[in-house]
Design a protein that fits this description.
heterodimer; A: Cytochrome-c3 Hydrogenase, chain B; four-stranded mixed β-sheet; three-stranded antiparallel β-sheet; B: alpha/beta; Rossmann fold
Chain lengths: 429, 192
């Protein structure tokens, strides 16, 4: 047969710039590489010397899709370093803000980036020609998430209201109540999304992933909990560095991560769901049952179903928080500066996001470490390709390339975040 | 099976000879209980400058919007966007006229102003290949046209850029084109 190369020079419908290269020799897959060439962004370096109070707003700029995740991991890490605890209403408002981001981000990925794969279109624009109602539904759902961000974050993208110790301003009960009707309609519509995506055809593949997600906090995880593995690990975010390490691979401007002594692992919807599904709301659990999902899920192509379930949960949780809300007397607690090291993990829509900061006595940043979910998932994404692509080698290059791109999109990689990614290259020989 | 109607919503497409899924009937999507959006502001006319001010000539649309602000009739709202298509689609609803200003790369001389009447010309590139970060003005216009139709007037002014490097200053040709476009739009908006 000879050598066959399939390359996707710029991967479409992923967040950021990257490429995929498959090398096939004599009918066998020799190599599958995900290359990330989006330039490094040096956030960790230019945070040095800045006040810890500035960090949530600076790190929010890492991503236009999941700025809340960066803000949440940053404020929790700073509060850990400063030894302060926020009040219960502030904690609840932060969960509410995260609900808004999960809705926005998951809906954008499901409807605009991932659904075209399952429905056989090049993109959302082409899909909209045949299925305008599907795209319209997606845009309306996303708007409901935007409303939460607009109220709690001050604006829809790169919110500016999150503060170390709390928020700069907290909403009144009445302001939150005004979100209620839109969220109720969104929750109903999100059940329709589950029904839609559960009907897609999924390749019958599974992998024995090591799932890593937050958990053991008595709630479906957003911004609290231990770092758990389905292979038995249970640590605090403060212990993260002892268990995980980043390493550089030549083909990627994003660092890869591994679980020391174990290797590649997966974070994100599959991991969160498989470690925490029992903690979903009754409505989301019922929707999971209707969608045919058990308590865990090892088929990454079904991640779109889990995103849909997490959107149901996010609407449900947002309504719970709004109904129970009592406006706190103060929007934030005091933040006396001190030297220290702070750690936090929170659940960005696409996976766990780790921040660590070392602060000087005046609260300025001495060093920073940010490990985004895509860095953590990149080895597993490549392992997916090495495992799945050999089953598809008889397919024409275009179909093979498309399935491989879809396998990457399963994990909603955010290359912009991870570079501190896409292009498909299939070499057949 | 036939090819002249949309494939069913099960991702299998037509003509592959497979049965549709039996567990969930998705061929008739559930009705969407959400309202399809109301206009956020009741301005009759909208000027939207699109771009990134930190990427050289990419910021020209926003520069034009900034210079127009304060010198337009009261029924005109001037706003800036960073180019997120999803947000832009919603802005193309419930207004009579929209004037979009963006940067372009077509190979023309830097500073060339390309004017496109979106209601008459499909400004959509042949194939979209973009992340949501990269879904641009053309895709937003194409989606808006399919989803809810375009405003009565929908003009796109695209200024050919020369440099898009992070942190770069705008090129002199693009700055000159911005001046010319501000004067032209101010006149057109005044004449209603």
């Amino acid at each position: 047969m000879g050598r066959r190369t399939i390359k996707v020079d710029v991967l479409a419908r992923v967040e950021g710039e990257g490429a995929l290269r498959l090398v096939i020799e004599d009918g066998k897959l020799r190599d599958a590489e995900l290359r990330i060439f989006e330039p490094p962004r040096f956030f960790e370096a230019f945070l040095r010397g800045r006040s810890c109070m500035e960090v949530p707003d600076i790190t929010a700029r890492i991503c236009g899709i999941c700025p809340v995740a960066y803000q949440m991991s940053a404020v929790h890490a700073m509060e850990d370093a400063l030894g302060i605890a926020v009040t219960p209403p502030i904690r609840e408002l932060r969960r509410l803000l995260y609900c808004g981001e999960w809705i926005e981000s998951h809906v954008l990925h499901m409807y605009m980036l991932h659904a075209p794969d399952f429905l056989g279109y090049d993109g959302a624009v082409e899909m909209a020609k045949d299925h305008p109602d599907v795209v319209r539904d997606g845009l309306a759902l996303k708007k409901a998430g935007n409303e939460i961000l607009r109220l709690l974050g001050g604006r829809e993208i790169h919110p500016i209201n999150v503060r170390v110790g709390g928020f700069y301003r907290v909403p009144s009960k009445r302001e939150l109540r005004e979100l209620r009707d839109g969220l109720l309609r969104g929750r109903d519509a999100s059940l329709g999304t589950v029904k839609l995506v559960a009907g897609f055809e999924f390749p019958d593949v599974e992998r024995d992933y090591e799932f890593i997600a937050l958990g053991n906090a008595g709630e479906y995880p957003f911004n609290a909990g231990h770092v758990l593995s389905n292979k038995g690990m249970d640590i605090t975010p403060q212990q993260y560095d002892a268990h995980f390490e980043e390493y550089h691979v030549r083909r990627s401007n994003a660092l890869h991560s591994r679980h020391i002594g174990h290797g590649a692992y997966l974070t994100g919807p599959l991991a969160r769901y498989s470690l925490n599904s029992a903690l979903l709301s009754p409505l989301a659990l019922d929707a999971a049952k209707q969608a045919g999902l058990g308590p865990t899920c090892n088929n990454p192509f079904r991640s779109i179903v889990i995103r849909a379930l997490e959107v149901v949960y996010a609407f449900d949780e947002a309504l719970r928080i709004i109904d129970a809300y009592e406006q706190p007397d103060r929007p934030f607690v005091d933040t006396p500066m001190r030297a220290g090291v702070g750690y936090a993990c929170t659940e960005a829509p696409r996976g766990m996001l780790y921040h660590r900061y070392r602060l000087d006595t005046d609260g300025s940043v001495l060093d920073a470490k940010i490990v985004p979910p895509t860095s953590q998932n990149q080895p597993s994404i490549e392992a997916d390709l090495r495992d799945f692509a050999p089953r598809w080698l008889d397919l024409p290059d275009e179909r093979l390339g498309h399935l491989c791109e879809q396998a990457i999109r399963n994990h909603d990689p955010c290359i912009s975040c991870a570079t501190h990614f896409l292009k498909l290259d299939v070499v057949r020989g | 099976m036939h090819n002249d109607s949309p494939p069913p919503l099960d991702g299998r497409g037509w003509g592959e000879g497979r049965e549709p899924p039996t567990t969930v009937d998705v061929r008739t999507p559930p009705p969407n209980p959400l309202p399809q959006g109301e206009g956020e502001k009741n301005f009759r006319r909208l000027v939207i400058g699109v771009g990134n001010l930190d990427r050289g000539d990419d910021g020209v649309g926003r520069l034009v919007a900034q210079r127009l602000r304060g010198s337009v009739p009261t029924d005109v709202h001037v706003e800036e966007q960073d180019g997120g298509a999803v947000e832009l689609i919603e802005r193309l609803r419930h207004v009579d006229s929209v004037f979009l200003i963006d940067a372009a790369v077509s190979g023309a001389a830097a500073g060339t102003i390309h004017q496109t009447d979106c209601t008459k010309t499909d400004a959509m590139p042949a194939k979209s290949a973009a992340s949501s970060h990269g879904l641009g003005v053309a895709e937003a216009v194409a989606l808006a046209r399919m989803l809810h139709g375009l405003p009565r007037v929908c003009m796109l002014y695209a200024v050919e850029g020369a440099t898009f490097a992070p942190g770069a200053a705008m090129s002199p040709q693009v700055l000159a084109a911005a001046d010319a476009l501000v004067a032209r739009l101010a006149r057109e908006l005044q004449s209603g």
